[in-house]
Amino acid sequence: MDMTGAFPGAHYKAADIMAGPIVLTIAAVAMGKVGDDTKPIMKFYEGDQDMVLNVTNSNTIVAAFGAQSEAWAGRQIQLFATKVQFGAEMVDAIRVTPVVGAAPAGTPPAALAPGVGAAPALASVQLTAAAGATTLEQFRASGWTDEQLVAQGYAIAAVAPAAPVAPAAVASVPVAPVAPVAPVAPVAPVAPVAPVAPAVPVAPVAPGAPVPPPVA
Description:
By secondary structure, this protein is an alpha+beta fold. It is 11% helix and 25% strand. The protein has three helices and seven strands, in the order E-E-E-H-E-E-E-H-H-E. The strands form two sheets. The chain has a five-stranded antiparallel sheet with strand order 3-2-1-4-5. The chain has a two-stranded antiparallel sheet with strand order 6-7. Strand 4 (76-86) and strand 5 (89-99) form a beta hairpin. The longest helix has 11 residues, at 55-65. The chain is rod-shaped, with a radius of gyration of 49 Å.
């Protein structure tokens, strides 16, 4: 039996989620006493434990859901355990990943922030924290995992595709029907031409015959 999570306290700690990440629905964030300090404490709809927010996790959630904690109600985050540098040592810590999508069934409607509902169709993803000119694909090509990016304060959010533009309505102009063309009367056949009678031969004049005088 793993005894590291056998005694859960009021606040989540890394030992509580060593078995694997868990997804929780944010109920509210309020300032509360933690030892001698006052820190923001996040409460969830699931279970009795809450989580003390540190700067890294708070910045991750702000990048995904906005700076007003009242708008986080009804949104979901994933808690996972990881190793972080603390002074000269690597220690266990909790890191968060915002969950993009619909609020779970049973979440009180009053807790839902504007825009919480059915998840949009996703076209691509982008880094919501300032990353200079470095894109998510360039980070991944360099060997970074999504968990490492989140641990460094970056949030990965979905980008919905642009809504299709409706085609402009084109007014239809009715075209008048074309009147049929009257049929052309047939041309009467040409009458045949009568053959020409052959010329009558002229009788030759006898040579040397005297020409008779003209009649007086």
